[in-house]
Amino acid sequence: MAYYRPPGPPPDPVLVQSLTQQQQEMRLRVRAEPLAQEPRLIAGCDSSFPTPDTILSVFVVLKFPSLEVVEKVYNYGVVDMPYVPGFLSFREAPNVIHTFAKLENKPDIIMVDGHGIAHPRRMGIAAHLGVLLDMPTFGVAKQKLTGTFAEPGIERGNISPLTDAKTGELIGEVIRSKDKVLPLFVSPGHRCDQATATRLTLACLRGYKLPEPTRLADHWAEQFKKEVR
């Protein structure tokens, strides 16, 4: 996800308290479990902020394992919630859900450009969306948000664990998706486990740093921006 981080005064503490409580309640609903069967369709999801007050969200649905594109949709809308660090999911989720509703081909699992449980309160955008949609989801992020890890080997396919610095809990895996490029941070969201998230990420690599679902979602986000300018 491409986040807009505007300058300004500190967030309203009452709002922060409310959002924290909501995340804690949602966290209790997150389930880590393998898929019941191999996915037939996998979707990539990405959001960006063309202006400080607007958001464009994209879903690209692909056949699995061929990764042939089946459908792509977007929704462009106004962002009502202010920027609050650590709670970006609340800015994105409403528009992402509107975008998902436009799909004629519902995926079996969603790969989100962002984090799943690899979040300080275990509720990154992938987990957030998974709970709201009651869909299997996982996150593939380009940067670490929380946790500690040892750098994986420089060749494609090397993996190292991402763990909570205090508890040692496994919250994700760090994957070298292409030789000698910066790694990706993969974590389960909802109705998905780490093994599934990692396996599908690797299965969706086609020579680029990003796996095809989120790479294509990002690509089409740039194309769709031209339609709303």
TrEMBL record:
A single cellular component GO annotation: cytoplasm
Residues annotated for Mg(2+) binding in this entry: D46, D113
Which parts of the chain are coiled coil?
Answer: none
- Taxonomic superkingdom: Bacteria
Location, primary (coarse class): cytoplasm
Top-tier EC class: hydrolase
Q: Which CDD domains match?
A: Endonuclease_V
Q: Which GO terms describe its molecular function?
A: deoxyribonuclease V activity; magnesium ion binding; RNA endonuclease activity producing 5'-phosphomonoesters, hydrolytic mechanism; single-stranded RNA binding
Q: Which Gene3D superfamilies has this protein been placed in?
A: archaeoglobus fulgidus dsm 4304 superfamily
Show which residues form the site (Interaction with target DNA): Y83
Alphabetized UniProt keyword annotations: Cytoplasm, DNA damage, DNA repair, Endonuclease, Hydrolase, Magnesium, Metal-binding, Nuclease
Signal peptide range equals none
* EC number of the protein: 3.1.21.7
Q: Which Pfam families match?
A: Endonuclease_5
Q: Which GO terms describe its biological process?
A: DNA repair
Q: Which cofactor does it need?
A: Mg(2+)
Q: Which family does it belong to?
A: Belongs to the endonuclease V family.
Functional description taken from the UniProt entry: DNA repair enzyme involved in the repair of deaminated bases. Selectively cleaves double-stranded DNA at the second phosphodiester bond 3' to a deoxyinosine leaving behind the intact lesion on the nicked DNA.
Protein name according to UniProt = Endonuclease V
Q: Which gene encodes it?
A: nfi
